[in-house]
Amino acid sequence: MIAENLFQQMPKIIGHRGACGHAPENTLASLRKAAELNTRFVEIDVTLTQDSVAVIQHDSDVRRCTNGRGPILLKSLEEVRTLDAGSWFGPEFGGERIPTLKEAIDVIGELGQGLNLEIKPTVGWQIPTAERVAEELLVHWPEEIPLLISSFAVECLIEVRRYLPDVPLGYLTSAIPPDWERRMAEYDCASLHCERHYVTKDHIKAIRDAGFRVLVYTVNDPEEAKKLLDWGADAVITDFPDRMFPLLEG
Ligand code: G3P
Ligand code: MG
To answer: How far is the CA of 217 from the centre of ligand 1 (A)?
Structure first.
């Protein structure tokens, strides 16, 4: 899908790691929770297992979000699938697994959501991660579903572009670098995704005036979301999509 079509379909509220304020991040339960809260677009993180399967996981170590420990890149899919990725969040989520990208795609399709897929490689594994993710997307991604790929790792953006010439790319950063415009052009990005503390009204205006979109993460205060959207941000990425809707609709 070309960038213009994607952004026409992208709502102002994007669920972070699904709806990770309400369900264990980056699980199928989190995607379903987001949908239940009427979130039409979600952000999730993708990384690789030892046997090069793309799975939905934020950290390079499984310790924080499962009952296991150790680097995910040193675990096979079979090992990863034995981990409980839900109980740490709440007993009612016991038995949630780290999903594969394929499983997440199937559920996103079923729920009718759009996706901001953040490629989160283990440091040093940027190229293999992007390559594998792109290969899986080529096989499994339904063309009609909106997809925006982002990464802090520019090697991933470059690599993905080689495989997927039309997919919109997001330049993901914390602070906005002074030479953002050159970087956006160099990595062929349509949007800039930045951390909420660093973004100003002037940034948003300049980036929008240059023809790019702006997404801000992680915004959990509805007043702040309203301010950012009033400044011209295209979307905010939030752990609590439900908190945002009343203010934005009012
Ligand atoms: O993609 C936006 C945001 O998710 C980036 O930071 O650490 O939450 O993946 P992080
Ligand atoms: Mg992320």
So the answer is: 7
Q: Beta strand pairing status for 147-151 and 41-48?
A: unpaired
Whether ligand 1 lies within 6 angstroms of the CB of 40 is answered as no
CATH number where 11 lies: 3.20.20.190
Q: Is residue 91 part of a domain?
A: no
The tokens of 95 are what? 């038995």
Distance, CA of 224 to CA of 123 (rounded, Å): 32
Residue 72 in domain: no
Is residue 223 assigned to a domain? yes
How many structural domains are present in the chain? 1
Q: Is 176 in the pocket of ligand 1 (CB under 6 A)?
A: no
In tens, the pLDDT along 215-224 reads 999 999 999 9
Query: Which ligand 1 atom is at minimum distance from the Cα of 150?
Result: 1
Which tens digit of pLDDT belongs to each residue from 14-63?
Answer: 999 999 999 999 999 999 999 999 999 999 999 999 999 999 999 999 99
